[in-house]
Amino acid sequence: MKRLLFIYILIASFAAQGQVMLGIANSNFAGNMGMGLNPSAMLLMPYHWEANIISGDIFLENNYVRYPKDQMMGSTEGTTPLPHGGLLDDYTSTPKNAHVHTFMRLPSFIYRTQEQAFGIHLALRGDISIRNLTPNLAKYAYEGLQYTDLSGVPITVDPFRIAGMTWAEIGLSYGKLIKKGNDHLIVAGTLNLIGAFQGLYFYNNRTDLTINGDSTMTINNMDAELAFDLPKDQSEAMKIRGKGASVNIGFTYVSNPYRGNFKDARTIALKRYDYRLGASLIDAGMVFFNRNAHVYTFNNSSAQLDTINAISPKGVDGLDQFIMNNFMTGANSIDNSFSLMTPMAASAQLDVCLAPRWYVNATVVQRANPPVPHVDFPNIVSITPRYETSYFEVALPYSLYDYYLNRIGIALRYHFLVLGTDKLGPYVSNNEVSGIDFYFGLKLSDYDFIRKGKRTRQNHCDAYN
User: Contact 55/92 with Cβ under 8 angstroms?
Assistant: First the structure.
């Protein structure tokens, strides 16, 4: 059980606003669900207001452990428990990465005029990331410390980083059309006020270690930093432990936006635009933790840990005492506050209207790598064709995740309901599963209150049919 818990923590530590919900985020009807990618989505939506009732995203991806699909779907009643809980590992020389992201947008609202838009949102979020974990260390996490093939073998742990945070945010958004005419230019931004429930990071620059079975571990030359501010028990799980802020800034240029042409007193259905080009900065912010923070800096630290299979620190205080007793000597230092950056990234979006109702989108998301502790955002390159009308939409996003994993997804919008995934494989194939992705949205707009037979040119437009 402890081993499976260790593996679960390893997976859950691999991380963002991870995911950008590619199948819906670039839609002209994205509204609230597009704000995380580019806040100018406020002024791209065709209706005057949108109320997000609830929407969310659950995402996990890694390149080390996998779960066989047949075991996931089959019954295990009366069978012998499988080693490692059925998980399989990919023990190669490639550094191990992963990402866990959860996002829940609570009731939120956007109001748009012809030239301005205003928005407010509430959200709960969690992002945890591991980057460049040494394969031998991942192998020990998978097999347990009694793994004999590496027993007594010196391991050089190269630089890697772990960071994670869960938080609530309230965001205020404003957008404006700053150029009209044959082309439009939109600028928009969101200011998020953050209250974090927990935060942690571990940055390793260099560590040499040797593990002898499950009895002793020798650690030398550890150059690293560990910081955490975690609840001591369940009663503290929802207490604010860190405060901060972040911003999203976006621009969108729209070429030849729809104005409506007429022939024989009837509107001619035209393309919504020729193309639109967007750029955005996502989640640029910082959270400061000082409620019950612990920060340890290890400078060429060494330790000899005996009977390591019996080491089991109890809670935050137990972990603190364990570190103090074994590592905090000499040049090592201690602090009681730290800062952690939100998962910042830059993005560019190109959306081309091929014909009325038919679009293709290209989006690139590139994580930032600031020289301070931060939660990592995954890199994404995507191409998404979609068919879009006022009340129905289907999109088929292809994406290259972190420049190594090919994914195909699907998203559907029908009236007020959105369902989608950017990783369809786990739902339709029998292959081993390395991650999951699912997002949904339930929202209303003024379109939902226009009866089909009562539309006029003032409240409905052929470009959105």
Answer: no
